[in-house]
Design goal:
This protein has 142 residues and is α+β, with helices and mostly antiparallel strands. The protein has one domain. The chain has helices spanning 21-30, 54-62, 83-96, 126-137; strands at residues 8-12, 37-44, 75-79, 99-105, 110-114, 118-122. A 6-stranded antiparallel sheet has the order 1-6-5-4-2-3, with helices on one face. Helix 1 (21-30) crosses helix 3. The termini are far apart.
Length: 142
């Protein structure tokens, strides 16, 4: 899906500075702006079971009123006003080693995050992708 779009930028997370995880999560949550809603759609989990904390995920998800299992409801829709909530779910997905998409609407941008330690951005500026790359490689003071 995302690989068929124009302006695709891939950023490796291999050897990344994971102390920047909160920064990266907030950046990913804010970059598809402007949007009304953003779907975080988990497509693969359980690859790195020892990295997952499903009780934490389900407890946080329950705070949004969602009690279904991830297999039953692999997506979560965030309103524009809940940037912090979206960033929190992004950070959990990154830490847990999940594959997931960020699909904002209405907009033409999207992102895919892989358990194989890379991000794919579509429709964002090259400057933002470079900022992520430099920060994760430790070249930025962000």
């Amino acid at each position: 899906m995302i690989d068929q779009r124009e302006k695709l930028v891939t950023v490796s997370l291999v050897g990344g500075k994971w102390s920047k995880l909160a920064w990266l999560s907030e950046l990913l949550a804010s970059q598809p702006m402007p949007y009304e809603v953003c779907l975080l759609w988990v497509t693969l989990w359980g690859v790195w079971g020892s990295s997952e904390n499903l009780p934490l995920f389900y407890r946080v998800r329950e705070s949004y009123g969602e009690r279904r299992q991830l297999a039953q409801a692999p997506g979560h829709l965030f309103l524009r006003q809940d940037l912090a909530g979206l960033a929190t779910f992004i950070q959990m997905g990154l830490q847990f080693g999940w594959d997931f998409y960020l699909l904002p609407a209405p907009t033409y941008s999207a992102a895919f995050i892989s358990h194989d330690e890379y991000l794919q951005f579509c429709g964002i500026s090259g400057e933002i992708a470079e900022s992520v790359k430099h920060c994760m490689e430790g070249d930025s003071k962000s």
